[in-house]
Amino acid sequence: MAHARGAGTGAVVVRQRLVLLAAALALLALAVALAPAPPARGGGGALRAMGASMGGFRIALVDLLFLRAERLLREGRVEEVPPLYEAIRELDPENAAAADHLAAVYAYDLVGEAPDTAGRFYWWQRAWRLVEEALAIHPDDPSLLMRSSDLLLEIAPRDPGLEALVARRVPDPRLEGYERLVATARLTPTLPRRGRIHLLRLAVLLPLEAALRLEEDADFEPILALGEEALALRRETLAEMSLPDPTGGEIGPGEPLDAVLEAGLEVVRAVGTARREGDEAGAREALRRYRRRVPDSDVAVVLERALAGEDR
To answer: Are residues 208 and 247 both part of a single domain?
Structure first.
Protein backbone atom coordinates (compact mmCIF):
# COMPACT_ATOMS: atom_id res chain seq x y z
CA MET A 1 0.00 0.00 0.00
CA ALA A 2 2.86 2.38 0.83
CA HIS A 3 4.35 1.68 -2.58
CA ALA A 4 1.00 2.34 -4.23
CA ARG A 5 0.64 5.65 -2.38
CA GLY A 6 4.19 6.62 -3.41
CA ALA A 7 3.46 5.81 -7.05
CA GLY A 8 0.24 7.80 -6.85
CA THR A 9 2.05 10.78 -5.37
CA GLY A 10 4.66 10.56 -8.11
CA ALA A 11 1.97 10.54 -10.75
CA VAL A 12 0.41 13.65 -9.21
CA VAL A 13 3.76 15.43 -9.25
CA VAL A 14 4.28 14.51 -12.90
CA ARG A 15 0.80 15.78 -13.79
CA GLN A 16 1.48 19.02 -11.93
CA ARG A 17 4.72 19.54 -13.83
CA LEU A 18 2.99 18.85 -17.11
CA VAL A 19 0.34 21.41 -16.25
CA LEU A 20 3.03 23.97 -15.42
CA LEU A 21 4.84 23.27 -18.68
CA ALA A 22 1.62 23.50 -20.68
CA ALA A 23 0.81 26.81 -19.02
CA ALA A 24 4.31 28.07 -19.71
CA LEU A 25 4.03 27.08 -23.36
CA ALA A 26 0.69 28.88 -23.62
CA LEU A 27 2.27 31.99 -22.11
CA LEU A 28 5.13 31.78 -24.59
CA ALA A 29 2.74 31.49 -27.52
CA LEU A 30 0.77 34.47 -26.24
CA ALA A 31 3.91 36.56 -25.75
CA VAL A 32 5.19 35.74 -29.22
CA ALA A 33 1.82 36.56 -30.76
CA LEU A 34 1.66 39.92 -28.99
CA ALA A 35 5.31 40.83 -29.33
CA PRO A 36 6.04 43.98 -31.35
CA ALA A 37 8.91 44.28 -33.78
CA PRO A 38 12.28 43.60 -32.10
CA PRO A 39 13.49 46.70 -30.22
CA ALA A 40 16.96 48.15 -30.39
CA ARG A 41 19.60 46.12 -28.59
CA GLY A 42 19.29 46.42 -24.81
CA GLY A 43 15.77 47.77 -24.99
CA GLY A 44 14.12 44.57 -23.76
CA GLY A 45 10.98 43.06 -25.27
CA ALA A 46 7.75 41.24 -24.57
CA LEU A 47 9.47 38.01 -23.58
CA ARG A 48 11.89 39.79 -21.27
CA ALA A 49 9.06 41.69 -19.59
CA MET A 50 7.07 38.49 -19.28
CA GLY A 51 10.03 36.63 -17.81
CA ALA A 52 10.51 39.29 -15.16
CA SER A 53 6.94 38.82 -13.96
CA MET A 54 6.50 35.06 -14.29
CA GLY A 55 8.19 33.89 -11.11
CA GLY A 56 8.35 30.10 -11.01
CA PHE A 57 6.70 29.81 -14.41
CA ARG A 58 9.81 31.32 -15.99
CA ILE A 59 11.93 28.39 -14.78
CA ALA A 60 9.43 25.92 -16.21
CA LEU A 61 9.34 27.75 -19.52
CA VAL A 62 13.12 27.95 -19.79
CA ASP A 63 13.38 24.22 -19.05
CA LEU A 64 10.78 23.51 -21.70
CA LEU A 65 12.61 25.56 -24.30
CA PHE A 66 15.92 23.83 -23.52
CA LEU A 67 14.25 20.42 -23.90
CA ARG A 68 12.68 21.46 -27.19
CA ALA A 69 16.02 22.76 -28.52
CA GLU A 70 17.78 19.52 -27.58
CA ARG A 71 15.12 17.50 -29.35
CA LEU A 72 15.40 19.59 -32.52
CA LEU A 73 19.18 19.21 -32.49
CA ARG A 74 18.85 15.43 -32.18
CA GLU A 75 16.46 15.48 -35.14
CA GLY A 76 18.85 17.58 -37.21
CA ARG A 77 16.47 20.55 -37.41
CA VAL A 78 19.24 23.03 -36.64
CA GLU A 79 17.62 26.01 -38.35
CA GLU A 80 14.75 25.88 -35.83
CA VAL A 81 17.02 25.99 -32.79
CA PRO A 82 18.37 29.59 -32.63
CA PRO A 83 14.94 31.20 -31.98
CA LEU A 84 14.50 28.93 -28.96
CA TYR A 85 17.83 29.90 -27.38
CA GLU A 86 17.13 33.53 -28.24
CA ALA A 87 13.78 33.23 -26.44
CA ILE A 88 15.55 31.76 -23.41
CA ARG A 89 17.94 34.70 -23.38
CA GLU A 90 15.01 37.12 -23.56
CA LEU A 91 13.30 35.38 -20.65
CA ASP A 92 16.53 34.97 -18.69
CA PRO A 93 19.12 37.45 -20.00
CA GLU A 94 21.90 36.15 -17.74
CA ASN A 95 21.48 32.50 -18.73
CA ALA A 96 25.04 31.44 -19.57
CA ALA A 97 24.01 28.04 -20.92
CA ALA A 98 21.67 29.58 -23.50
CA ALA A 99 24.43 31.89 -24.73
CA ASP A 100 26.87 28.98 -24.91
CA HIS A 101 24.46 26.71 -26.81
CA LEU A 102 23.38 29.44 -29.21
CA ALA A 103 27.01 30.33 -29.94
CA ALA A 104 27.66 26.64 -30.65
CA VAL A 105 24.84 26.56 -33.23
CA TYR A 106 26.21 29.70 -34.87
CA ALA A 107 29.78 28.38 -34.86
CA TYR A 108 29.42 24.72 -35.72
CA ASP A 109 26.35 24.77 -37.92
CA LEU A 110 25.74 28.18 -39.47
CA VAL A 111 29.40 29.06 -40.06
CA GLY A 112 29.81 25.77 -41.89
CA GLU A 113 26.69 26.27 -43.98
CA ALA A 114 27.61 29.80 -45.12
CA PRO A 115 28.42 29.87 -48.86
CA ASP A 116 31.48 32.12 -48.66
CA THR A 117 34.05 33.65 -46.32
CA ALA A 118 31.97 36.78 -45.74
CA GLY A 119 29.03 34.67 -44.61
CA ARG A 120 31.21 32.53 -42.39
CA PHE A 121 32.69 35.67 -40.79
CA TYR A 122 29.19 37.04 -40.19
CA TRP A 123 28.14 33.98 -38.19
CA TRP A 124 31.54 33.77 -36.47
CA GLN A 125 31.12 37.36 -35.29
CA ARG A 126 27.60 36.62 -34.04
CA ALA A 127 28.97 33.74 -31.98
CA TRP A 128 31.95 35.76 -30.73
CA ARG A 129 29.86 38.75 -29.64
CA LEU A 130 27.42 36.47 -27.89
CA VAL A 131 30.12 34.68 -25.91
CA GLU A 132 31.97 37.91 -25.07
CA GLU A 133 28.77 39.52 -23.76
CA ALA A 134 28.03 36.44 -21.67
CA LEU A 135 31.61 36.39 -20.33
CA ALA A 136 31.20 40.01 -19.25
CA ILE A 137 28.45 38.74 -16.93
CA HIS A 138 30.04 35.35 -16.12
CA PRO A 139 33.83 35.84 -16.46
CA ASP A 140 34.60 32.58 -14.66
CA ASP A 141 32.25 30.31 -16.62
CA PRO A 142 34.36 27.39 -17.95
CA SER A 143 31.95 26.51 -20.76
CA LEU A 144 31.95 30.06 -22.11
CA LEU A 145 35.74 30.26 -21.90
CA MET A 146 36.06 27.00 -23.76
CA ARG A 147 33.56 28.10 -26.38
CA SER A 148 35.51 31.29 -26.99
CA SER A 149 38.69 29.24 -27.30
CA ASP A 150 37.00 26.94 -29.82
CA LEU A 151 36.03 29.94 -31.93
CA LEU A 152 39.65 31.04 -32.10
CA LEU A 153 41.48 27.72 -32.30
CA GLU A 154 39.05 25.41 -34.06
CA ILE A 155 36.45 27.36 -36.04
CA ALA A 156 38.49 30.22 -37.50
CA PRO A 157 41.35 28.06 -38.91
CA ARG A 158 38.91 26.01 -41.01
CA ASP A 159 38.93 28.77 -43.63
CA PRO A 160 42.14 30.77 -44.27
CA GLY A 161 40.06 33.77 -45.30
CA LEU A 162 38.03 33.57 -42.12
CA GLU A 163 41.18 33.17 -40.05
CA ALA A 164 42.62 36.34 -41.61
CA LEU A 165 39.45 38.31 -40.84
CA VAL A 166 39.42 37.03 -37.25
CA ALA A 167 43.05 38.12 -36.83
CA ARG A 168 41.98 41.67 -37.65
CA ARG A 169 39.47 41.57 -34.84
CA VAL A 170 41.43 39.62 -32.21
CA PRO A 171 45.17 40.34 -31.94
CA ASP A 172 47.12 37.06 -32.02
CA PRO A 173 43.97 34.90 -31.92
CA ARG A 174 45.83 31.65 -31.33
CA LEU A 175 47.64 32.99 -28.26
CA GLU A 176 44.32 34.38 -27.00
CA GLY A 177 42.68 31.00 -27.59
CA TYR A 178 45.32 29.14 -25.59
CA GLU A 179 45.20 31.73 -22.82
CA ARG A 180 41.48 31.03 -22.51
CA LEU A 181 42.09 27.29 -22.41
CA VAL A 182 44.54 27.77 -19.55
CA ALA A 183 42.03 30.08 -17.85
CA THR A 184 39.51 27.26 -18.16
CA ALA A 185 41.98 24.83 -16.63
CA ARG A 186 42.31 27.14 -13.63
CA LEU A 187 38.56 26.93 -13.07
CA THR A 188 37.78 23.27 -13.68
CA PRO A 189 39.11 21.13 -10.82
CA THR A 190 35.53 20.10 -10.08
CA LEU A 191 34.57 19.63 -13.76
CA PRO A 192 36.76 16.70 -14.80
CA ARG A 193 35.02 15.95 -18.10
CA ARG A 194 35.33 19.44 -19.54
CA GLY A 195 38.58 20.12 -17.75
CA ARG A 196 40.16 17.05 -19.25
CA ILE A 197 39.21 18.09 -22.76
CA HIS A 198 41.08 21.34 -22.20
CA LEU A 199 44.07 19.58 -20.74
CA LEU A 200 44.33 17.11 -23.61
CA ARG A 201 44.34 19.99 -26.07
CA LEU A 202 46.88 21.92 -24.05
CA ALA A 203 49.24 18.95 -23.66
CA VAL A 204 49.20 18.09 -27.37
CA LEU A 205 48.82 21.50 -29.01
CA LEU A 206 50.86 23.93 -26.92
CA PRO A 207 54.26 22.36 -27.81
CA LEU A 208 53.19 22.27 -31.48
CA GLU A 209 52.15 25.94 -31.40
CA ALA A 210 55.48 26.86 -29.79
CA ALA A 211 57.38 24.89 -32.47
CA LEU A 212 55.44 26.61 -35.26
CA ARG A 213 56.29 30.01 -33.79
CA LEU A 214 59.94 29.03 -33.53
CA GLU A 215 59.89 28.02 -37.20
CA GLU A 216 58.37 31.41 -38.11
CA ASP A 217 60.92 33.27 -35.95
CA ALA A 218 58.01 34.52 -33.86
CA ASP A 219 57.97 34.84 -30.08
CA PHE A 220 57.24 31.39 -28.65
CA GLU A 221 57.99 32.23 -25.01
CA PRO A 222 54.35 33.16 -24.15
CA ILE A 223 53.23 29.74 -25.38
CA LEU A 224 55.91 27.96 -23.33
CA ALA A 225 54.84 30.00 -20.30
CA LEU A 226 51.23 28.86 -20.77
CA GLY A 227 52.40 25.24 -20.98
CA GLU A 228 54.40 25.60 -17.79
CA GLU A 229 51.40 27.14 -16.05
CA ALA A 230 49.18 24.28 -17.22
CA LEU A 231 51.70 21.81 -15.76
CA ALA A 232 51.85 23.70 -12.47
CA LEU A 233 48.07 23.90 -12.26
CA ARG A 234 47.08 20.40 -13.30
CA ARG A 235 50.11 18.13 -13.23
CA GLU A 236 48.30 15.60 -11.05
CA THR A 237 45.33 15.41 -13.42
CA LEU A 238 47.58 15.30 -16.50
CA ALA A 239 49.44 12.39 -14.90
CA GLU A 240 46.14 10.49 -14.80
CA MET A 241 45.62 10.96 -18.56
CA SER A 242 47.40 9.45 -21.54
CA LEU A 243 47.73 9.88 -25.29
CA PRO A 244 44.86 8.22 -27.15
CA ASP A 245 46.97 7.20 -30.18
CA PRO A 246 50.27 5.33 -30.52
CA THR A 247 53.42 7.31 -31.28
CA GLY A 248 55.83 4.40 -31.66
CA GLY A 249 58.33 5.74 -29.13
CA GLU A 250 58.93 5.94 -25.43
CA ILE A 251 55.92 8.24 -25.08
CA GLY A 252 52.91 6.37 -26.37
CA PRO A 253 49.58 4.95 -25.26
CA GLY A 254 49.50 4.93 -21.50
CA GLU A 255 52.21 7.58 -21.18
CA PRO A 256 51.03 10.33 -18.82
CA LEU A 257 50.15 13.61 -20.51
CA ASP A 258 52.29 15.55 -18.07
CA ALA A 259 55.29 13.78 -19.63
CA VAL A 260 54.02 14.53 -23.14
CA LEU A 261 53.61 18.23 -22.40
CA GLU A 262 56.84 18.55 -20.45
CA ALA A 263 58.91 16.82 -23.15
CA GLY A 264 57.38 19.01 -25.86
CA LEU A 265 58.06 22.22 -23.98
CA GLU A 266 61.61 21.13 -23.16
CA VAL A 267 62.57 20.35 -26.76
CA VAL A 268 61.22 23.63 -28.11
CA ARG A 269 63.07 25.58 -25.45
CA ALA A 270 66.28 23.59 -26.01
CA VAL A 271 66.18 24.00 -29.79
CA GLY A 272 65.32 27.69 -29.45
CA THR A 273 68.17 28.33 -27.01
CA ALA A 274 70.67 26.43 -29.16
CA ARG A 275 69.62 28.37 -32.26
CA ARG A 276 70.05 31.71 -30.50
CA GLU A 277 73.53 30.65 -29.42
CA GLY A 278 74.42 29.42 -32.90
CA ASP A 279 74.77 25.89 -31.58
CA GLU A 280 73.29 23.86 -34.45
CA ALA A 281 74.78 20.62 -33.11
CA GLY A 282 73.12 21.21 -29.73
CA ALA A 283 69.78 21.92 -31.40
CA ARG A 284 69.95 18.71 -33.43
CA GLU A 285 70.95 16.66 -30.39
CA ALA A 286 67.97 17.98 -28.43
CA LEU A 287 65.74 17.06 -31.34
CA ARG A 288 67.26 13.56 -31.61
CA ARG A 289 66.60 12.94 -27.91
CA TYR A 290 63.01 14.05 -28.34
CA ARG A 291 62.53 11.88 -31.45
CA ARG A 292 63.61 8.83 -29.46
CA ARG A 293 60.76 9.52 -27.10
CA VAL A 294 58.14 10.68 -29.63
CA PRO A 295 59.24 9.69 -33.15
CA ASP A 296 55.91 10.45 -34.83
CA SER A 297 55.38 13.82 -33.17
CA ASP A 298 54.32 16.80 -35.26
CA VAL A 299 56.46 18.90 -32.93
CA ALA A 300 59.56 17.05 -34.15
CA VAL A 301 58.51 17.45 -37.80
CA VAL A 302 58.15 21.23 -37.41
CA LEU A 303 61.45 21.59 -35.54
CA GLU A 304 63.25 19.47 -38.13
CA ARG A 305 61.82 21.69 -40.84
CA ALA A 306 62.97 24.79 -38.98
CA LEU A 307 66.53 23.45 -38.69
CA ALA A 308 66.54 22.34 -42.32
CA GLY A 309 65.50 25.85 -43.34
CA GLU A 310 68.57 27.25 -41.64
CA ASP A 311 70.80 24.95 -43.70
CA ARG A 312 69.47 26.27 -47.01
So the answer is: yes
* CA–CA dist 75, 68 (Å, integer): 11
Q: Does 166 lie in the same domain as 53?
A: yes
Any domain includes 37: no
Beta carbons of 207 and 242 less than 8 angstroms apart: no
Q: Show the CA angle centred on residue 250, arms to residues 249 and 251, nearest 5°.
A: 90
pLDDT digits (tens, 9 = 90+) for 220-241: 999 999 999 999 999 998 998 8
Could you give the number of structural domains in the chain? 2
Report pLDDT digits (tens) over 275-292.
999 999 999 999 999 988
pLDDT in tens, 120-160: 999 999 999 999 999 999 999 999 999 999 999 999 999 99
**Residue 196 to residue 212: CA distance in whole angstroms:** 24
Whether 159 and 248 map to the same domain: the answer is no
State how far the alpha carbon of 301 is from the alpha carbons of 122, 257, 283, 290, 297, in Å. 35, 20, 14, 11, 7
CATH code, domain with 161: 1.25.40.10
Q: What is the CA radius of gyration of the chain?
A: 25
Residue 274 CA, chain-centre distance (Å), reads 35
Residue 178 lies in a domain: no
Domain extent at residue 116: 48-170
Same domain assignment for residues 124 and 81: yes
pLDDT in tens, 15-74: 544 444 554 555 455 444 434 344 434 444 544 544 444 444 556 666 777 787 778 777
Q: DSSP alpha helices (H): ranges in the chain?
A: 2-34, 46-54, 56-74, 82-91, 96-104, 111-113, 117-137, 142-150, 160-169, 173-187, 192-215, 221-239, 257-276, 280-293, 298-311
